Amino acid sequence: MSDVVMQIDGKEVKARDDMTVLQAARAAGIHIPTLCHHDKLEPFGACRMCMVEVETRGRKNYVVSCLYPVAMDLVVRTRSERVDKIRRVILEELLAHAPNSPELVALAREYSADRDRFDKDPSFCILCGLCVRYCAEVKQKNAVDFIERGARREISFIPEIAATECWDCQECFALCPTSYAQAAFFLTEALAFPGRRKASAKRMMTVKLPSMQRCDAQPTRLSNDRRCDCSKPAS
Amino acid sequence: MTRLHSATELEQLRAGILSSRNPAKPCIAVCAGAACHGLDSSRVANAFQTEVGKLGPDAGVEVRVTGCHGYCEKGPNVVVGPDEICYFEVSPEDVPEIVDRTLRGEVVERLVFAHPDTGEKAVHMGEVPFYKHQTRLLIGDNIRIDPMRVDDYLAVGGYAALAKALFQMTPDQVLDEVKKANLRGRGGGGFPAGRKWETAKNAPGKDKYVIVNAHEGEPGAFMDRALFTGNPHKVIEGLIIGAYAIGSHRGFIYTRHDSPQLIQHIEQALAQAEEYGLLGENILGSGFDFRVEVHYDVGIFVSGESSALMRSIEGLPPEPRPKYIRTSVAGIWDKPSNLNNVETWANVPQIVGRGADWYAGIGTAGSKGTKLVSLSGNVVNSGVVEVPMGTPLRKIVYDIGGGVAGGKAAKAVHFGGPMGGSIPVSLIDAPLDFDELAKLGAPIGAGGLLVMDEDTDMVDVARYFLEFLTNESCGKCVPCREGMRQTLKVLTNITKGKGREGDIAQLEDLNDVTGAACLCALGRTASDPLKSMLRYFKDEYETQIARGSEGKGSEATGSAAR
Known about the structure:
With 235 residues, chain A is an alpha+beta fold. Chain A has eight helices and seven strands. In chain A, strand 6 (144-147) and strand 7 (154-157) form a beta hairpin. In chain B, strand 13 (410-415) and strand 14 form a beta hairpin.
């Protein structure tokens, strides 16, 4: 089983040869931050928060640990001045869009990211793709997808699918680091299929709030963010 | 057309084609390349056909509609063989006179090249300054070939290298020849093609693919289109030889959906090659099978990135693949896939035909052969240029390009489009060499050379390229999408006279992260133009920012000067 021996942050780590650096680090109890990663989903490599420094044959390289395969004698550093800088700038760029996301705020504290470095452009979505990929890979419904490209990229619920598939699911809402997924869904409902809310959904007049995996997000002093209430039962 | 079953039959066919042609008779080649086409060269071609038609077949005058001749600035271009008399800016009204004089063995003086300063005339191709300083190994045949006729390609020796590879060489020998020639990829990275082929060849698996990247989406790059549209068989021949060396039986051509002429020529070339048995099953009776499919892009720049291109061929959206595994090991459908661009493939027949030693004799220590360059910007002669590697940029810009347009001074030359870099005119003696130019911060890229005159605003140039990339990025990874968004904001503010103190540090910081953290080459090199600007033109950025932070916009300069 443990057929690769490598070094992460100076610690000798054993890993299976089909693992990624992120998996090996986590198995060894070493924390690497991620925003677009989810154990149930294919690695996406989009947020670039999990970048680490690797050294092979004396050559230093910066790679995303969620995709980089482990290798014998690989030397990995999960923190360095440069790694921290990359994470800090990425956080600052994302905070321009979602300044109150508890996950981002917590990470910003850790990496001394300035929430106000860039002018606010509150689209709320950070395009981590968790909703899109969860819907496609786990639920296999493709009710939400990316549209457009480059700086115009956004997520969009597909009304024809969302109108029938989303009422009894809504599992992506809990995955969303900014609550934008549910906002996008209800916006789609209001615009494309108003009044067609299923009876079962009408009973829960409030939206199901996170119950899956995001509840370990650090509490934040930003009281206006509903994500922090996740420990309270939904009424 | 009859199917050829051996190399001997190919040579017999070639001999037959040549014997039916009289090389001493005039042949009028009318350029139908993209630029000339835009200048209505089809009307010129029609006029020639009508005029020559009146003479009847006994006159022996041939009219040939060809691909790009290269001198786009002076289109529509007409070259009259066999002496290669060049006529420029030809209109349909000039046609009767050209035909009449040609028949009498005379030249239409008013349509030949006249030097803009001295008025000195140049009649033949070898005397025209634009052509004189070039070495046109790849593009030179364009004037002799109607891209819709495979016979024209056979007449200039086409497919002889394929026959040589199939019957006189083993796949390993072909590979060794390409490695020995040190052919480096012309698509941007300059990676040795032979090594890439070897990786694909040695990768496990029976099914392997070879691909022509004919996307060429870079603004200011038009040489691949000129070559592929004008001489499609040359690229296809290179591809077949490569497939033979690698052990691939299926190839793909990935090209633009929006170039109807190119598509028509590729499809015709594939069909004709197949009819002759130069493609398909049992090529020339050698036992080697190879088929080619054409795929079209979906109209976005990033689909020219290798892994995105392969996803597109699979039928998925063209997003670069984030995996750390080379496409030559796991590409299309995770099978070994060897991708080279048009110009790289086009080099293969001559390497096999004339030998690696001959090829390696051209160019510099690290960069062999010739390179096609799309010359544009503030230059007198824009067009497609082919020169040996190692040629000083000065020669390209001044001797071939005729210097800066409008009598102005040059300020910078920019290589590689929106992912390249600018170097100041003080470095213009630098050689056209992958490594030398990369060191200076202006990597050759695909070969788009942009000349910028003294009036060029270097902040605006960086802003322009970034705006292009912001729209063309797939938007998947944060440092590319967001890094460029923020960088563009800063640059736009500076150009509007709203620069702030600290902008340069801000730009450097953003650029550093974008260059290091992006998922694919588009993002990682998106920072290159700005990096080169901050290396060579920082004072210009500082001046513009200072104007902004004084809060007076452009007026500030005036008052400061007083």
